Amino acid sequence: MAQNGLKFRTTRPVKVGSTIVGGGAPVVVQSMCATKTMDIDATVAQVRQLAGAGAKIVRIALDNEKEVAALKEIRAQTRGVNLSVDLQENYRIADKVAPYVDKIRYNPGHLHHIEKSKSIPDKVRWLADVARDHGLAIRIGVNCGSVAPAFLEKYAGDQMTAMVESAVWHCEMMDSYGFDRFVVSLKDSDPAKVLEGNRRFAARRPDVPLHLGVTEAGLPPDGIIKTRLAFEKLLAEGIGETIRVSLTLPHERKHEEVEVGFQILRDVAAGRFISVPDFGKGLNIISCPSCSRVENDKFVELAQAVKEMSVYAAAHKITIAVMGCRVNGPGETDDADLGLWCGPTTVNLKRKDTKLGNFRYDEVLGKLRLELDKLIAERA
Q1: Of 138, 154, 179, 258, which is least surrounded by CB within 10 A?
Q2: 308 contacts: CB under 8 Å, gap ≥ 6
Q3: pLDDT tens-digit profile of 141-185?
């Protein structure tokens, strides 16, 4: 079937505040605030900025109870906007934030961190009950950099299967608890893996709406190309009921994520697809979207500086990851040839999963270049 020129699957509809995801509804474009949640004025302004660009759902990250009071005030000043909250590594605050949002997102790979004596099914049941009691939707958000250890162990050496099976298991738990107001996302920084993961999941659970995203797509224009490489194919196949474009951008430009999302939808509906045959065959820089988890705003400047510094290595098939927080930083730099995991005052420089040291923001670029030169020389 087609909707606004796009194919769509007959998934069940999931209500998120005043909007519907799935069920044949038009694809929903959403985004995420990059501001600090405790900075109420800045976050309210960004919620309005993103909603003004057309985002039907705006996500805010919370990590602890101290931020709940800020969320309450943000909600009071953004009535009419559908808010989603990212629970990060602290699922226990779900009941505290529930009165002020329309949707909660939890990461199956983070549930084991807290209250280790409780089983994962018990934790998921509690989340489903909280959502049911408050009329909320849930996103089961599986991320390549934080797949649940139990699934990585069970499917050792096959991260893709671990991701898909983790998502399917969580859906089955939701089913068993009688909760069906949920969507799923399977995200990776590699467009090819996003394609594979979502196709495999869609075949297993064609009833569940999918939230598409290429995580850590990076700086424009490369980040836009990576996103399009995954989104265009999936949307053309009718896979994807809501999309989020993740770009490394300064706060004042975050609305561009929404604009790019709508442009992709228009292009796919019109049959306009990009063709970049050599993309991804050389240097690959991945960087996470600036969001409220970023611990130092210099992260965005550093990502841009890395891109400019490494131009000379464009022909080499090397991946450099620039990550802005502790949530995704450790895991998602492990897979990169060279990684920068940014903290509040220093940056962790890594080569694969080996830490090379902590460096100030103003000195890490030189250290990175030395390691990049070593890597090029070794491969030569």
Answers
A1: 154
A2: none
A3: 999 888 999 999 999 999 999 999 999 999 999 999 999 999 999
